Amino acid sequence: MDGAEMNIYAKVKEAGPLLSVRGLSKFYGSRIGCADVSFDLFPGEVLGIVGESGSGKSTLLSCLAGHQAPDEGGIVFDGRDMFAMAEPERRRLARSEQAFVHQSPRDGLRMGVSAGGNIGERLMAVGGRNYGAIRETALDWLGRVEIDGARIDDRPSAFSGGMQQRLQIARNLVTAPRLVFMDEPTGGLDVSVQARLLDLLRGLVRDLGLSVVLVTHDLAVVRLLAHRLMVMKSGHVVEQGLTDQVLDDPQHGYTQLLVSSVLQV
Amino acid sequence: MIMLKDVSKTFTLHNQGGAVIPVMTGVSLTVAPGECVALTGRSGSGKSTLMRMIHGNYLAASGEILVGGLDVAKASPREILALRREELGYVSQFLRVVPRVPTIDVVAEPLLTLGTAAEEARDRAAALLARLNLPERLWSLSPTTFSGGEQQRVNIARGFIHPYPAMLLDEPTASLDAINREVVLGLIADAKARGAAILGIFHDEEARARVCDRLLDVTGFTPGLAA
């Protein structure tokens, strides 16, 4: 028994973080975007970031994903310093080992290109050349995100919002990234469509061992998806911990306010 | 297997003038492998609070909470997640699931998280649901629309699908009929026989008398209630 116990925590301790963030800050003139954010994200872990509009969570996400340059701090991805890296190397990483799921599928999809093309394009960007193999993979991914393979040649503009969001996820995951950034992925969807997407995301995280940084203002979504939770206010992280602990026994006044403001169904 | 040493709990209400409410103090207890201990005390005496602290859902203000060697009071989130995945089962009174996920998958999920093959996980889930007399036609439906007793059996199946060495049971027989209550008492007896340490809340006195080896009144740990 003792040996087995040592094992499960040794595993926890031994695996190094996939993403290490230290002292990350971004200022817009004298206004704070986000300030002094530090955390480690481990393989297979989903980190939720919650806060109201303007809390800095989207600024933080865009700095993490390399869409904006932070003013201070460091990001290490899989042992590699993201800011010491040459730009082409960073772009290659962003296309292969990392992915970004936008709130609006329109920002993450090419609306004039077929569903299959949207998935295939990512594969070609990392060197895929065989047309038959690419189409086969696209078809497989359409199935995994529950889109009928017969729709492979349709453009996403002919899809419902929920289908578009699932297609965006397929496009992002086809290159087998290890780290996925998600900005309100269930944001604009009807609740019934949201539930299906949550189930899909949970399965993909578990089966593919994905690490995810998930930004949302929806506490119900983080409860179901995130292992750990970070609460932001005015650019600062005010509380972080195990998701259900932060939601059920919040320690910071702002988190208490946030949690107690949720309408009960 | 479960050992608490001088554990206390306070709630600080920052939005109500920073009021500090002490809810538990000086909690010490042990549950040995193969033993089932019942927490007793009237409503509001802190039974559920204590269970939540052991599960890592509530933060302890002080003291040690040892579950199989891990101090939950000081453990990192990742260590607590590993503990819950492998060693500490929890049957709560509430079912919290992603809507639309079929019951059989809800029950199989803890095994999938442990890396069990999908087919085996579903087979074991099916066997447990059958033992709990949940009609097979319900297995492919989401439990969110089930009756209280049906939801409770789904929760129990989920909590017993993996042979956790430590278990927390919050009113496991509360809304069950006599037949299913027997099934659940049988599951608890089996878990004890394989060496699980169980801490539970049972308002059902007869059930408590049948499976529990000891009673522990938490009133003595509750500031303001202790006589």
Layout of secondary structure:
The complex is a heterodimer of chains A (265) and B (227).
Chain A: H1 2-14, E1 19-28, E2 31-41, E3 46-50, H2 57-64, E4 72-77, E5 80-81, H3 87-96, E6 98-101, H4 105-108, H5 115-125, H6 131-144, H7 161-173, E7 179-183, H8 191-208, E8 211-215, H9 219-225, E9 228-233, E10 236-242, H10 243-248, H11 253-260
Parallel strand pairs in A: 3-8, 3-9, 6-7, 7-8
Antiparallel strand pairs in A: 1-2, 1-4, 4-5, 9-10
Helix pairs in contact in A: 5-6, 5-7, 6-7
Chain B: E1 2-13, E2 19-31, E3 36-40, H1 47-55, E4 62-67, E5 70-71, H2 77-86, E6 88-91, H3 103-113, H4 118-131, H5 148-160, E7 166-170, H6 178-193, E8 197-201, H7 205-211, E9 214-217
Parallel strand pairs in B: 3-8, 3-9, 6-7, 7-8
Antiparallel strand pairs in B: 1-2, 1-4, 4-5
Helix pairs in contact in B: 3-4, 3-5
Largest interface: A-B, 33 and 32 residues
Helix percent band of chain A? 40-55%
Q: Largest sheet of chain A, if any?
A: 6 strands, mixed
Q: Please report which band the strand proportion of chain B falls in: under 5%, 5-15%, 15-25%, 25-35%, 35-45% or over 45%.
A: 15-25%
Low-pLDDT segments of chain B: none
- List the total number of helices of chain A: 11
Counting structural domains of chain B, the number is 1
Shape of chain B: globular
Give the helix level of chain B as a range of percent: 25-40%
Structural class of chain A: alpha/beta
Distance between the termini of chain B: 30 Å
Approximate shape of chain A? globular
